[in-house]
Amino acid sequence: MQRNLLKTIVLKQQAEKDTLLSLPYIKRGKAERGGEWASSTLIKVVLGPRRAGKSVFSLMLLKDRNFAYFNFDDPALVGEKLDLYKFMDELRSVYGETKYVLFDEIQNLPGWELFVNRLHRQGYNVVLTGSNANLLSMELATHLTGRHLPIEILPFDFKEFLRAKNFQIDPKYDSLPQKRGELLKLMEEYLTNGGFPEVVLGNQQPLGYLDVLFDAVLFKDVVKRHKVRFSEQIDQLGSYLINNISGRYSTRRLANILKFKSDVTLERYLSYLIEAYVLFSLSSYSAKAGERLKSPKKIYTVDNGFVSAKAIRHSPDKGRLMENMVFTELVKRGAKPNRDLFYYKTRNDREVDFVVREGTEVAELIQVCYESINPDVERREMKALIEASNELKVKKLTVLTWDEKREIKKDGLTIAFEPLYEWLLSPASPNSPQL
């Protein structure tokens, strides 16, 4: 790459950095640990889907320090080979001799692991962002073992959403009765449009923006990154699963429906969508790992807005949207799918939406029920919880409702019916990992 072009890119991105730092900022829940993280000598790796706010979060992490910034997702870099020694010289010429560096979308740099390791050994305080969940697991575990701190940034949770909408409730909820109607209206908006910052802040029309974003993620983070030849199959798979969110699937059945020639190909394509933070796959809970692997999985997406944007039917099922919203909130609170979080089928084939594990113990069973006032629905949800409670020896049983609060005592158990907004506004469990 020509030196003049490299300097032009660095200077342009410096201006972009200064602009971003000057804009109003919606404080993220994880910002409370920002000072601690920024001071750590570990390599900070900020991961999450595109446009979820990783870059802004990372900039705010370092805003009180003089730091160099570079975005490896810049279109001007396409087809260019970067000389990393000249690159670091240009950064120094623009930013001075700072030891703080922030690199956006690091996965676009071939051989990034060796480069980052070298900088770390040279005493640099490094912050990376990436739109690839694989960085969080295999690549980081292999190349940055014991030297990195992973931080996941997903679209706004409900508290951050309300903050962005300038909606406040006093800590003791004394003002809730007067504001309840407005709160439910905002929760309906969040249920439908999700929490991507550009959508929440009203900078973009929700459905069009999210439709384009979904397609961009598929192209950049799946088709292009993995050199997928049959891109229409990835698109079909993503659209089908988004339209069947909160539902169960098996790879063989999916392969038949979508006419994949191989289950192995479908599983690989699905792993790419999970890696790109589009989808999550949830296993059935069992103490036996073999049974977890054999059971059908459930599918969720990172943000409800994707469901509305890609919906084939006129309007998505609100019960499924509500379940997906609860799933993503549990993940945002630190629960790791298939480690701390599962679904469950009882011996009588009744389903419990979420099994929440803390350490080695199952701590809570959660059922999500949009229509809890319906007696038949209520009986069905309670039967599943009671059966699962007896099988798994769990006492904390919760039914999350749209707007209903009560307790039911049955068979020596207490089942708490809790409004979704109360649960979303409640603090996370003190035992939850908060990365």
Descriptive account of the structure:
With 435 residues, the protein is an alpha/beta fold. It has a domain at 3-152: 3-Layer(aba) Sandwich (Rossmann fold), CATH 3.40.50. 46% of the residues lie in helices and 17% in strands. It has 18 helices and 14 strands. The protein has helices at 3-22, 34-39, 54-61, 84-95, 112-121, 133-143, 158-164, 176-193, 197-200, 206-226, 231-242, 251-257, 263-275, 289-294, 304-310, 318-332, 375-392, 420-425; strands at residues 43-47, 67-71, 100-104, 125-130, 148-152, 248-249, 279-282, 297-301, 341-345, 351-358, 361-369, 397-401, 406-410, 413-419. The chain has a six-stranded mixed beta sheet with strand order 9-10-11-12-14-13. A five-stranded parallel beta sheet has the order 2-3-4-1-5, with helices on both faces. α4 links the parallel β2 (67-71) and β3. α1 (3-22) packs across α4 (84-95), α8 crosses α15 (304-310) and α10 (206-226) packs across α15 (304-310). The longest helix has 21 residues, at 206-226. It starts with a helix and ends in a 10-residue tail after the last helix. 37% of the residues are buried. Mean pLDDT is 91; it is low at 430-435.
